[in-house]
Amino acid sequence: MKPFRSFLLILLLATPHLAHTAPQFGYAAKRHVSELRHDGYDFIIAGGGTSGLTVADRLSEAFPNKSILVVEYGDIEYAPGVWDPPKTAWGDTSGMSSRWALNSLPSPSLNNQGAAVIVGQSVGGSSATNGMFFDRGSRFDYDAWSDLQTDDGRRDAVGWDWSGIYTYFKKSVTFTPPPISVANQLNYTWDKSVFGNTTPIHASFPPFQWGDHYAVRQAWLEMGIRLAKECATGDKEGVCWIPISQHPISARRSYSGVGHYSDVVGSRSNYHLLVKHQVTQVIYAHGDVEAGPPLLEIKSLVDGQASNLTAAAEVILAAGVFGTPAILQRSGIGPAAFLRRANIEVVHDLPGVGANLQDHSGPQVAWKYTSPPPFSPMPTDMLDPVYATRAAADFDATPATGPYTLAMSNTAIWVPLSNITAHYSDLMQQIRNLANVSEPESLHLPPEYESDATLAAGYRAQLLALANMLSNPRAPSLESAFTTGTAVSAVLLHPLSRGTVRLNLSRPLDPPILNYRSASNHLDVVLHLHHLKYLRRTVQAPTLQGLGAVEIQPGIRRQTDEDLVAYIRNTTVQSYMHPCCTSAMLPLAKGGVVGVDLRVHGVAGLRVVDAGIFPMLPSAHLSATVYAVAEKAADIIITHWSRG
């Protein structure tokens, strides 16, 4: 394993609770265009988040004689873990690095409630502010991605299936097993062969669990859910241990701002980062989209100065699921009808820009204990000043130990639909029937889909892919994670509903308008219902019953499907912070925005490398997949330019 030598870590070890200040470790960061190269750059990357910095690191390493510039909206900040000292309330997310707190338009099918979404706004992007859960999807997710690229059932030529992306999952992370004493104490299992050990993005298991953690794990085993040794192999079913994105010695958050910037930039004179600048649009001279790469127009967030930057090779968009569609739409690249309504000149009609929005969602099951169980330690212990002081000291030890090493969660279940309901075959047939309806309005889609045959065709292809995948008894449909407490969530991994991202016409440089349209497809409510009824069995398992557990949500009085559907419509969390798919990697005839080489369809010198390129949601939290996609994207770009 490579030593962890970032300037940031040295600073943190010297001043362990430097919570909200911005450490001056950005010795290569630029803050004004006057500091940039006067002759332009070979590659310019819009967005210094998870994917943008990964690609910048790999390109600057592979091409020492080419120049790379990353333009980032935010600034360099210390990115604390989900739960670092001095906070004493576990689950308190205050004090995290800068982020946007966005809200979608109301979803009529969920009682007009909107989705609340957090997006990173500093160097490192969402990897600097996420829950640190570091899991991969099922192999069947990525096989479906590949199948969607062709019409004849063959896999795509670039290899976006599991076998083609697995190498990049391994390349993108260094996993460090826990000490044997910790593994034996906490019953951790893993398979180190499915991880790499050559990158400065780290994942590990925390040397701590709350006292009630194993009660729910045991309840899930009593429900008949299998115990999995490792769930990063592509075979993702059962009760799993999941590593978290933290360094194994310091237990500090490991994220792209450290691993793919500060750890490497000191030795790379060709790798530049410009902070506090917004990418406003890409500009094709005279509207000639074949004469790329485009200029990149940027605006300083300090003095408002606008500038154009020149890329000799290509411009790479990594501004995220919401930011990239906004840049394209401001540039006149997107759905022509919307652009005309917005009085934006149509440079290139690309209907899929900002379509296909997806996220994980679901309701909760909650309970109470009728008598205080003998759990220890528990989050309430942190209210004792002596315990909290000792916990902070343990966190600052080498290696770090104690409760502060624990992030949001590192245990979860993934359950196939065939294990959840005996009616799964009927449900899959309903999905296939929906894919074959002739009237676009019957697909429960945004109005744009009804007027564009390519968007409707792409959605039909996704429905068939989902039906085939969920019919597989090894492909998960439900996720539920747990660390401590008295609630678990029934997370729908593969929603059928689709939303949109559209430019804010009154404030076009602000974050765009999100329309999640959650549960607009009625079959999502049916799937939520089956998931909820299944997850309620957790409370009835012998271990929790032995502790006097009594269900309080949905509650024992809600037993009919009608009552449970009403509960789902009123309480479903619409975003578990996993938005994706708004610049989808699909053929143009299926409403795609980029091809398998991640080039934007129909324009020259422009690629997208962020989570927007996912065609469909994977059965995972998104961080690990974004890193793997970025690693593969970098290889695609390097291979192309190495050939001249």
Automatic annotation (TrEMBL):
Active-site residues, as the UniProt record annotates them: H578 (proton donor), H621 (proton acceptor)
Cofactors (names): FAD
Protein name: Uncharacterized protein
Name of one Pfam family that matches: GMC_oxred_N
Family the entry assigns: Belongs to the GMC oxidoreductase family.
Residue ranges constituting the Glucose-methanol-choline oxidoreductase C-terminal domain according to the UniProt record: 495-630
Binding site for FAD: T50, S51, V279
Annotated substrate binding sites: Y576
Domain annotation Glucose-methanol-choline oxidoreductase N-terminal: ranges: 41-360
Record keywords, A-Z: FAD, Flavoprotein, Signal
GO BP annotations, alphabetical order: secondary metabolite biosynthetic process
Keyword Signal: yes
Molecular-function annotations in GO: flavin adenine dinucleotide binding; oxidoreductase activity, acting on CH-OH group of donors
Signal sequence bounds: 1-21
PANTHER family: DEHYDROGENASE XPTC-RELATED, GLUCOSE-METHANOL-CHOLINE GMC OXIDOREDUCTASE
SUPFAM superfamilies: FAD-linked reductases, C-terminal domain, FAD/NAD(P)-binding domain
InterPro entries noted in UniProt: FAD/NAD-bd_sf, GMC_OxRdtase, GMC_OxRdtase_N, GMC_OxRtase_C
Originating species: Lasiosphaeris hirsuta
